[in-house]
TrEMBL record:
Name the record gives this protein: Fluoride-specific ion channel FluC
Function: Fluoride-specific ion channel. Important for reducing fluoride concentration in the cell, thus reducing its toxicity.
Protein activity control: Na(+) is not transported, but it plays an essential structural role and its presence is essential for fluoride channel function.
Reactions listed under catalytic activity: fluoride(in) = fluoride(out)
Membrane topology annotation: Multi-pass membrane protein
Entry keyword DNA-binding: no
Record-stated family: Belongs to the fluoride channel Fluc/FEX (TC 1.A.43) family.
Database matches in InterPro entries: FluC
NCBIfam families: crcB (TIGR00494)
Compartment annotation: Cell membrane
Transmembrane residue ranges: 36-57, 64-81, 101-124
Positions contributing to Na(+) binding: 76, 79
Length: 125
């Protein structure tokens, strides 16, 4: 049953990513792929928050299943490291190296910072 829920959550995460990216693309005034950046930062925040919240409970199999379904399933389907990597290289080649490096740094530091914030908030709650 956990595998089925994991697959469904992953699909819902992927659909959520598609919708979020389309929304950001419609409102993006810059020549940067902000949708993927926003998705990875918000997904990292959500995963950190879930991890902080769910780690406080007991390490039983039900808690592990919930963490797997929400973390690996939904958040894994929502976030996209591969697209961020391709967009970094595309910016490097199509615009300039500095733009590619700035985008990669924003993705890395934004995502790690958001995950840390989520863990901290989750532990507080």
């Amino acid at each position: 049953m956990t595998m089925l829920l994991l697959a469904v959550a992953g699909g819902l995460g992927a659909v959520s990513r598609f919708l979020a990216d389309a929304f950001v693309a419609r409102h993006n005034p810059f020549r940067m792929p902000l949708g993927t950046l926003v998705i990875n930062v918000t997904g990292s925040l959500l995963l950190g928050l879930l991890t902080g919240l769910l780690s406080a409970g007991s390490p039983d199999s039900a808690g592990a299943s919930v963490r797997a379904v929400l973390g690996a399933g939904f958040c894994g389907g929502y976030t996209t490291f591969s697209t961020a990597s391709v967009e970094t290289v595309r910016l490097w080649v199509a615009q300039d190296r500095g733009t590619g490096v700035r985008y990669a740094a924003a993705t890395l530091f934004g995502s790690v910072g958001a995950a840390a914030l989520g863990l901290w908030l989750g532990a507080l709650l």
